[in-house]
């Protein structure tokens, strides 16, 4: 009987993880293509289909670090039980479902972090203050970095003395260089769990002498090579047709950010089950990430179009240039957060970039009311999810025991 009860709890936790991942796919993985839809570079349904595939791939290849943070670093002194994980995931998913219904994107990182802190405290754990300070600092810097970089980039792209045949390809070169150094689970690395394209190719050609911070010359040269390839690819297309070339780059950017969003968001669904899968059941993390990726794929295909329309049309009326300016910092910040193991909200990053790019064209192009309501939703989400997570676990424990 006891074994049956444990099995039911485990099954409920896995189903809740799938539901949470579905909501993430519908909610938090939508913004990367919102600027492209707003610029009429892709249709809403096409974007939802592509987002699902790319976000699921990113979840499998990059989702481990965020999952570990959510599962082990938010509360000291206790481990998350299947019942606690179910309560936390239901709380976070409920908040984001409200966001989908109201068309105000709820930040998944805020909802999940608050919910897991709440259930952890309800279990009798102690607050992990050092982790909270690290997360809070990064979250506060995100809108400043994303919005500021988008504003500066959009302003430069609008300048008459910066030819678009140079400015846009330079941005593409920067993105290409960063892509070469993105860590992926399918690339072997003798010193880390995940390797980079630049490091892998550099080892194939011999590496070379080590420079500053332990980076070898070969990796630097390969990174430059990737940047140059991206530069000349976009420049060639822009020289043929400026508008067509810029739209092509915008679509590629949306795809890269969608991939990054899967890597940064899946851990919000799988993190609460880290202890269950890896310690209690002895199962590999890849299996847990695959469950999350499946949910994200389904959510993006089934639920993303509604939020895509809201974020693309209501926050700012962007052209392709300001859309590019919104996505470039989004990609950079998302990959930085993955490298540091910090759960983030893609809504926060992309919408800050959308707003920053919109302000470059004048404040009239940005809905200030929408921005104000969104920020209020974010703050309420973080505070109230702690209380709801705490109370929901207490209710479950009282009714079900454990």
From TrEMBL:
Compartments in which it is found: Membrane
Transmembrane segments: 6-25, 37-60, 80-101, 108-125, 137-154, 211-234, 246-266, 286-304, 324-343, 349-366, 373-393
Membrane-protein topology: Multi-pass membrane protein
GO cellular component: membrane
Keywords, in A-Z order: Membrane, Phosphate transport, Transmembrane, Transmembrane helix, Transport
One GO BP: phosphate ion transport
Function: Potential transporter for phosphate.
Family: Belongs to the inorganic phosphate transporter (PiT) (TC 2.A.20) family.
Protein name: Phosphate transporter
Source organism per UniProt: Haloarchaeobius amylolyticus
């Amino acid at each position: 009987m006891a074994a049956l009860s444990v099995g039911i709890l485990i099954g409920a936790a896995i189903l809740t993880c799938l539901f949470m991942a579905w909501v993430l796919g519908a909610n938090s993985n939508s913004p990367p293509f919102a600027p492209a839809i707003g610029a009429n570079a892709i249709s809403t349904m096409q974007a939802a289909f592509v987002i699902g595939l790319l976000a699921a791939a990113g979840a499998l290849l990059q989702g481990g670090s965020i999952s570990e943070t959510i599962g082990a670093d938010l509360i000291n002194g206790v481990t998350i039980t299947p019942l606690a994980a179910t309560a936390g995931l239901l709380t976070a998913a409920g908040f984001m479902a409200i966001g989908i219904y109201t068309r105000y994107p709820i930040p998944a990182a805020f909802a999940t972090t608050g919910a897991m802190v709440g259930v952890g405290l309800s279990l009798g754990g102690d607050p992990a203050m050092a982790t909270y300070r690290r997360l809070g600092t990064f979250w506060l810097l995100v809108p400043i970095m994303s919005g500021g970089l988008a504003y500066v980039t959009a302003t430069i792209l609008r300048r008459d003395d910066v030819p678009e045949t140079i400015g846009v390809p330079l941005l593409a070169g920067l993105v290409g260089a960063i892509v070469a150094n993105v860590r992926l689970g399918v690339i072997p690395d003798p010193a880390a769990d995940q390797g980079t394209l630049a490091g892998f190719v550099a080892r194939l050609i011999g590496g070379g002498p080590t420079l500053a911070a332990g980076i070898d010359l070969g990796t630097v040269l390969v990174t430059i090579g990737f940047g140059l390839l991206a530069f000349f690819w976009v420049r060639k297309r822009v020289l043929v047709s400026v508008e067509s070339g810029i739209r092509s780059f915008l679509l590629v950017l949306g795809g890269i950010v969608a991939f990054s969003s899967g890597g940064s968001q899946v851990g919000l669904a799988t993190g609460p089950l880290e202890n269950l899968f890896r310690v209690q059941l002895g199962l590999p993390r890849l299996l847990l990430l695959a469950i999350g990726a499946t949910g994200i794929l389904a959510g993006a295909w089934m639920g993303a179009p509604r939020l895509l329309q809201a974020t693309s049309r209501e926050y700012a009326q962007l052209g392709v240039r300001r859309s590019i300016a919104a996505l470039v910092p989004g990609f950079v910040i998302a990959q930085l957060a993955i490298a540091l193991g910090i759960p983030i909200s893609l809504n926060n990053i992309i919408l800050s970039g959308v707003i920053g790019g919109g302000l470059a064209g004048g404040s009239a192009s940005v809905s200030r009311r929408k921005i104000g309501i969104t920020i209020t939703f974010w703050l309420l989400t973080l505070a109230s999810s702690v209380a709801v997570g705490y109370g929901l676990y207490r209710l479950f424990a009282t009714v079900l025991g454990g």
